Amino acid sequence: MLHHISLGSLDIDRAALFYDAVLFPLGYVRVWSDLDAALDRKAIGYGPPGSGDKLAIKQVHEPIMRSPGFHLAFASPSRQAVIDFYEAAMATGGMDGGPPGLRLHYGPNYYAAFVIDPDGHHLEAVCTNSE
Predict the structure, then answer these.
(1) Are 119 and 8 contacting, i.e. CB atoms less than 8 angstroms apart?
(2) Which of 85, 96, 81, 94 is nearest to 128 (CA)?
């Protein structure tokens, strides 16, 4: 259904470090960068290696409006990748939104971690297989 989604960041360089670290364990990489200091519209894009972006992060200059209940959930290939996502977030300026573990109220194999990025965006990594 979705082609891609974009989020704003007040500090694109900090966001790049964060997203490079947290998305790598999930199998996503930076697929393009437009970080020319001369431009006012800096941005980076993430997706599966060799593809286009599914997530773009764009430099903004105004405080970011947040919508209660909104979060992004990234598909994870394994429970270990969920753990690695969470640990990378904690090491690069993210905040804990819920440590890795089973969320049985969502399903018998729903293993997830919740974090808040340095700009306040709520993120989740989720694995629904039993490994």
Answers:
(1) yes
(2) 81
